Amino acid sequence: MVHALSLWLLAAAFLGAGIVNAIGAAGTRDDFVKWGYPRWWGILTGALEISTAALFALPAARIAGIALGTAITAAAILTVLRHRDYRHLPPLGVFVGLIAVVVVSA
């Protein structure tokens, strides 16, 4: 039960983050540029996050989804730490926590 609930919460979180990044509001685009990425980087990130959510929905692809989601989250954490933009750490901590619960409860 915990595994299924945390898996679907994680899928919803990646889907939501993916939509926000893919839509690319001005503030989101500005953050990517501030971190040294091109303006279109949010669209790529959003597509990867939406793909991660889709992989969670397919039982045969969940391990790939966890791997991709972990890589995306790790890259985001490294970017935020490198640029000392700590206000983005709390949401990333939620992703780390949900990933940990999914992996441990499997």
Attribute tags:
106 residues; mainly alpha; 5 helices
How does this structure look, described?
With 106 residues, this protein is mainly alpha-helical. It has one domain. The protein contains five helices and no strands. The longest helix has 22 residues, at 2-23.
Give the helices and strands, then pairings:
Layout: H1 2-23, H2 26-34, H3 41-57, H4 62-82, H5 89-104
Helix pairs in contact: 1-3, 1-5, 3-4, 4-5
The N- and C-terminal alpha carbons lie at a distance of 10 Å
Report low-confidence residues grouped into runs of 5 or more.
Answer: none
What is the domain total for the residues? 1
How many strands, which pairing sense, and closed or not: the largest β-sheet? none
Shape: globular
Question: Short summary of the structure?
Answer:
Helices cover 80% and strands 0% of the residues. The protein has 106 residues and is an all-alpha fold.
